[in-house]
Amino acid sequence: MVYYLFLPVFSLLLIVFQTTVLDLFFMGKVGLELSLVLVVYAGFYLNIIKGGAMSFILGFYLDCVTGSIPGLFTFIYVAIFFLSRVVSLRVYMEGLTFIMVFTFTCAFSEGIATILIYEFFLGVDMFHNILRVFLPQALVIGVLSPALFAIFSRFEVLLNGGEARQINRT
Amino acid sequence: MSSPGKYQTIIIASILLIASIIILSFNLKQLGGTGFIRRLVLETAAPLENIINSSMGGISGVWRRYIFFVGLEEENRKLRGEIVSLRGEVNQYREMYLEGMRLKKLLNLKENINYPTVIAEIIGGSRSSVFKMILINRGTTDGVKEGFPVLASEGVIGRIVEASWNVSRVLLLIDNNSNIDALIQKSRAQGVLQGRGGEGCILKYVQRSEDVRVGDNVVSSGLAGVFPKGLLLGVVKKVQKKKSGLFQEILVSPAVDLSRLEEALVILSDKKDRR
Predict the structure, then answer these.
(1) Rounded (10°) CA dihedral A96, A112, A90, A50
(2) Which residue ranges form the domains of chain B, and what is each CATH number?
(3) Is B23 in the A-facing interface, judged by CB distances under 8 Å?
(4) Are B176 and A129 a contacting pair at CB < 8 A?
(5) What is the complex's ipTM, to 2 decimals?
(6) Domain ranges in chain A?
């Protein structure tokens, strides 16, 4: 219950932190989307209700704060959460390389989905952003994902007790 | 996975995906409105963003000073402290002077515009590499509505895309979603100025036969009724005529340095309010 009470507040703080502090840190050149890594993490390790609610709320807040079409990131985050969930049931996902590759794929797919939705529904051409924006963004987030997974795991331990997960260097 | 668990996953997945698709498709059909929950989130997030943005300046200043003073002699530290304090004071005066100058420019601009206007402070925004937007501290309670143009003293910044009670979101003219009816000031050739993110803007649909040169001013044409005619949008940076095709490719630099915005002027451009 406490989880669901804190979820909206924590999610808003994370999104604001992401769009202000991290944006200042990276000078707006590369967006470090912590929320996306958290959604992938939730898909791997959280239960379906907790993770689904978190993905939905994070996506909705990101829509509100970035000014994108309402529902765009909500849909993408929920889809990525369930994709991660399905993958986690079929693949051994503790390896560092797998986490990096999977997060990179999700981040890049998010970019492509954004471009396609804007192109097909609003007729806005954003294809020039693929190599200049989405690819470097996905690479950065992919490289940093194991470290972020470790941090999220620590937080989860703080909330629930127990031991932090070990991520294998394979 | 057991059967009940499997069904639970499918049911929750379906509910969340359908809910998000409904939100998305509803908003794709009805662009422009700012829903109540979205307003609430915006009103909650804006002060947080403002606090973080303003405190980050202070923190980085403290950090720089700390690095600078480490390892220096006590006397040296005192003297430097004094210098820093005096510099801070001078800097404060300079900031006030510059702010006064900026506001004076905005007021001059305000007098030249035939519409009522309101001066706003930039309190945050999305510098994300895809969406180029800023937040200002004026909303519907100040008369700001969606679609209103936003200017700096040098020219157009963008237009309001979301207006909450006390906060509004401005779509910068370099955002990919921004399209403004424009014309080349000298030749009067008409086109549409479209945002290209970090690259600035491109002026589309200008015929090959038109005489366009680097350095020409690009101004609003006033055709779509959003921006009053003649507002400076940018300056032609590059002109390229390909061997084939009806139109030429024109790259435009925005007239305003969008990375250094502090104040802006919103034109309350309802026709009935025209002065």
Answers:
(1) 90
(2) 1-112 (no CATH), 117-274 (2.40.10.350)
(3) yes
(4) yes
(5) 0.77
(6) 2-159
